[in-house]
Structure formats: C-alpha cells, structure tokens
Design a protein that fits this description.
By secondary structure, the protein is α/β, with parallel strands linked by helices. The protein has 22 helices and eleven strands. The strands form two sheets. Strands 1-2-11-10-8-9 form a six-stranded mixed beta sheet, with helices on both faces. The N and C termini lie far apart (about 55 Å). The protein binds 6-O-phosphono-beta-D-fructofuranose. 6-O-phosphono-beta-D-fructofuranose binds next to loops.
C-alpha cells in the first residue's frame, strides 16, 4: 500500500479540507496552551511549531501517517547498516561516524590520523617545501565535499584558530580559484583535494591548476607531498594524481557526499577550529542521533520537521520553504540545506520505481535575517503564496557587542532577536482592516496595509552557536531529510538527477572553441555554440 492509500492519508485529506480555511489567529485564540502543546525541547534546543497551521488532530493524524509509513522500520534499517541506498547497493552509515567509541574501527583510525594531521599543522611541525609553516589551507571540492565544511567553518568563525586561514574553492570557473591563488604564497599553502569519487570534473580541474601553481614555484614534484592532501574513497585515483598514501584520508561508500562533514571531509573545518571543537561537533550530532533513534514520535524533533514539511507541501500546497537563520554566522546554512534536502528528496520516483503521488521536497531557499527583511520578506507578507519558514535564532550572540551607554549604538543581539520574533508573529497573525483603521490609516491606503497572515513558521532556538550546537542542528536536518524520504518511500541517498547534465557537458566541451560536428544537438544548443565560438 502506498502512502496515499493509507487510512491515515485519507483522514488527513478530509481533515486538511476543513483546516485549510482556518487562520492562525483563530487557532491561537482557541487554545491558550498552544505554545506548550506545540513546542518541544531537547538538550538545550527549543523547537516551537505552534505557528504551524495544525491542530492537535492534525498532529495526531500526521503521527498515524508516520506509523503507516513504517518510519520506525526504516530508521532501524538505516541504523543497523542495511543497504537502504538500494539503487547504488550501499548502506547509509554517516551516524556511525560520530558514534564516539562505538564508531567502526576503520572510522576511528581515520579520525586519529586526522587529529594527528591537524596537530602537526597547527603546531607548525608540518612544513612546506621551503621549510616554512603552513599559513593557508585551501579546500578544493564541490557539493558535499565543499558545502558542509564551508558552511560550518563560516558558522564557527568566532572560534577559529589563530595563524591559520582556511579557504574554499568549488566552482570550475577560474574566477573562483585564480584570485585566491593570487593572494597566497605557495611556500605556505596546503591544498586539500576533497572528492569522494575523485572523478568530479570541477574538483579535478581546480586541483590540476593548484598543482601547476605550486610546481611553478617549487620546481620539484617532491613538493606535492608537502602541499597536497586528499580526502576520498578512491585510493587508486588519488595515487594517480600523485598524492602520497600518507596524505590520503579515506572514507567509505557508505558515507553519502551530502552527509560527509563528519568524515575526513571535515578536515578543513577541523583545521579552522581545532580538533577538540571538531570532536564537539561530532558530540552534538551524537546527541541528536540518540534523540532521533529513541525519542517518542510525538516528541521527536526531526520527525516533527519532516511531518510539518509534508503537511505544508502536500496538504496546504506550499512549493517552497524558506530557511531564515537570524545569525550572520549561519549565512551558508541555506545553501548547505539546499543540497541536503533537495539532492536527497527532490525525486518523483519511489523505491519501487513508481511515480510519487505528490511533491516530496519543496524548493529550499533562504538568507539570514535581518537582511532578508529588507528584500524578499515583502513577498512572504503580501505576495499571496504559502511559504513556510524555519526561523533559527541564537539565545546568546556568538559575537556579543553591546552598545555604548550614551545611547550612540544599540544592542545588536537584542535587536536581532526582536526582529526574529516580530517576523514570525507578523507572518502568522498579519494585520486586519480593523487594526489598520485603528492605526488611523486612510481608506484609500487601507488595501495596501493589509497583511493576510496565516503564513506558517517554526522557530528553532539554540542556546548559542558553537561546535556542539551546530552538530545538533545539522544532525536535526539530516534526520528530517531521512524521515521525509522514508514517509514518501523514496531513496534519499542516491542522486541520479545530477548525471544527465554531466554527460551532456562531456559531449559539448570538445565543441567549445573548436570546430566539430554539432549536428546531434538541438537548434538552441547549436545556436549557442556558434555564438560562444564567435561564428
Ligand atoms: O554531482 C553531485 C555530486 O555527486 C554530489 O552528490 C557530491 O556531493 C558532489 O557531486 C561531489 O562529489 P565528489 O565528492 O565525488 O567530488
């Protein structure tokens, strides 16, 4: 029986028909306990989903749906190492990477090597070809081999190690790597080539340029060993690139690219923040893993997020979902979540190869608040589209900066938090004609000052932003992604949809700046090729 054929789905369909017309104003007016009813805490995190358009019945029916989809069974399969990535014949074991003493021996061995490597670099024991210590590290990778460490290194900038700068290069566009290399000194620069497969075109082209840049200065191949590290599952290919085995930190095919921050792929982050903080990140994720595995469904934070996403997308008709961190340090989180959620669940085919009866994954997008308030929030408030929002806020600032007593500047964090709370309330409750009139607005302006409200949101409050809470936050969204895939019975761990473009690019590339047979291509591609080639 597919999800949409279950009695729980039928019941939700009927329930949604009546609830769709209800306003959050009324839901709050009816239930003074709404915040208490629809908020949960775990290990310092607070998840307030009282501003979602649900009632206790909705919640109960969604939990019935979760049971009907056998989410317990799927969770068990993942945690016990079954090959639930069935189209690639792989297990999904990123949780094992952060299991501490319960991690698989091969994972613990690599962690130990990574720690030793970090310590050599931080202590200055690792020297470049001219005998100088490393001052700059460049992570070259893309997708899951870039977004996680880049986002986390940005998030934890308040806790960076002194004397070591970490940079990230992803795009095959030379405008990414070239200006960076122009600022760096080859004698003191270490490259980390991060690629699970070591076949990714962008990464290999950037790595080759980095290598040429280094060798132009060092003038001897032996310098590669002092300036290149590889993070990969593909030992043969890292060897072929010329990276010494001692400088290769492996991971395994049971770690998906977008779930790989916890593996050797985290090296650039560990270098940025120091090894003890990387361990804190793993510990935070471990705390969320325990919760994911054992918290009752009604209290399970990642399951709650997944069920709300399904409710908003399928039953209320949302097509996108905004992630709005009220934290400048989390500015890269939306980009990271785009890969995590959209590459995992942006699919229309279930595990049996059958078409899905709905949309499993909304478009995920976002920007930090308060910046977004001064650009796209207009549409959230009055654009007439249902766009559920995840607000993410920090109780304490990671950069406390209090204004002067003379009143010349304000308290940044107070203002930040006030805006976050204000926005979720404004989106939920809007502004009625009566309220506009009561504010003395003229009738001619009244239509423009109406705020329909009823825009659902969840607020996640972290006590602070540090490696531990970041680990919790990321594991929370990882498990949300897993549950959403399990609810729809899709394989969240493959990504066949990225392949066609790669194949076509390989066929088109020989025709750029060259004369060749383009007759197999459509007229648009041929026309564009002619224009690119100046014909
Ligand atoms: O093209 C998509 C993808 O395969 C992602 O899933 C992955 O994270 C990224 O490319 C990079 O892959 P790799 O780490 O093998 O270079």
């Amino acid at each position: 029986m597919t999800l949409t054929q279950t009695p729980a789905w039928q019941a939700l369909t009927a329930h949604a028909a009546s609830l769709r017309q209800r306003h959050l104003r009324d839901l709050f007016a009816e239930d003074a306990q709404r915040f208490a009813r629809f908020s949960r805490q775990h290990d310092g995190l607070l998840l307030d989903f009282s501003k979602q358009r649900i009632t206790a019945d909705t919640h109960r029916l969604l939990l019935d749906l979760a049971a009907a989809a056998d989410i317990d069974g799927w969770r068990q399969k993942m945690l016990s190492g079954e090959a639930i990535n069935h189209t690639e014949g792989r297990a999904v074991r990123h949780v094992a990477l952060r299991a501490g003493s319960a991690a698989p021996p091969e994972a613990r061995a690599v962690l130990e090597r990574l720690q030793a490597c970090c310590e050599r670099i931080h202590s200055g024991a690792w020297r470049g070809y001219s005998g100088e210590r490393i001052t700059d590290v460049v992570n070259i990778g893309i997708g899951g081999s870039d977004l996680g460490p880049r986002m986390a290194a940005r998030a934890l900038v308040a806790q960076h190690q002194p004397d070591l700068r970490v940079h990230f290069v992803a795009n095959v566009d030379s405008a990414d790597i070239a200006p960076l290399l122009a600022r760096l000194d080859p004698r003191t620069t270490l490259f980390i080539i991060a690629s699970k497969t070591f076949t990714t075109q962008e990464t290999l082209i950037n790595a080759a340029s980095a290598r040429a840049w280094l060798l132009a200065a060092a003038r001897e191949e032996a310098a590669i060993a002092r300036h290149f590290i590889a993070l990969s599952t593909a030992r043969e290919r890292t060897r072929a690139f010329g990276i010494a085995d001692d400088n290769v930190f492996e991971f395994w095919d049971w770690v998906g690219g977008r779930f790989s921050l916890w593996s050797a792929i985290g090296l650039s982050l560990a270098l940025a923040v120091g090894w003890p903080r990387f361990e804190q990140l793993l510990a935070g994720a471990r705390s969320m893993d325990k919760h994911f595995a054992s918290a009752p469904a009604a209290d399970n934070l990642p399951l709650t997020l997944a069920l709300l996403s399904l409710w908003n997308t399928h039953f209320l008709g949302a097509r996108s979902a905004a992630v709005l961190p009220y934290s400048q340090s989390l500015e890269r989180l939306p980009a990271y979540l785009q890969q995590l959620e959209m590459e995992s669940n942006g699919k229309q085919t279930d595990r049996e190869g059958q078409p899905l009866a709905g949309i499993a994954c909304p478009v995920v997008w976002g920007e930090p608040g308060t910046n977004g308030q001064h650009s796209f929030y207009q549409l959230l408030h009055q654009g007439g589209q249902l766009i559920p929002c995840d607000f993410i806020a920090l109780r304490d600032s990671d950069f406390p900066l209090i204004g002067h007593n003379d009143g010349s500047s304000g308290d940044h964090h107070k203002a930040l938090l006030a805006n976050c709370l204000a926005q979720s309330a404004a989106l939920a409750f809007g502004q009625t004609a009566e309220e506009v009139r009561a504010a003395g607005v003229s009738e001619s302006l009244l239509p423009f000052k109406l705020f329909p409200g009823n825009q659902p949101s969840t607020t996640l409050l972290l006590p602070a932003l540090n490696a531990y809470t970041l680990g919790q936050l990321l594991a929370l969204y990882e498990h949300k992604t897993f549950f959403l895939g399990a609810l729809w019975n899709i394989n969240s761990f493959d990504q066949w949809g990225v392949e066609l473009g790669k194949t076509l690019a390989r066929r088109i590339e020989p025709l750029i700046n060259a004369v060749g047979d383009d007759s197999a291509f459509d007229s648009s591609t041929r026309g564009l090729l002619a224009a690119v080639n100046g014909r």
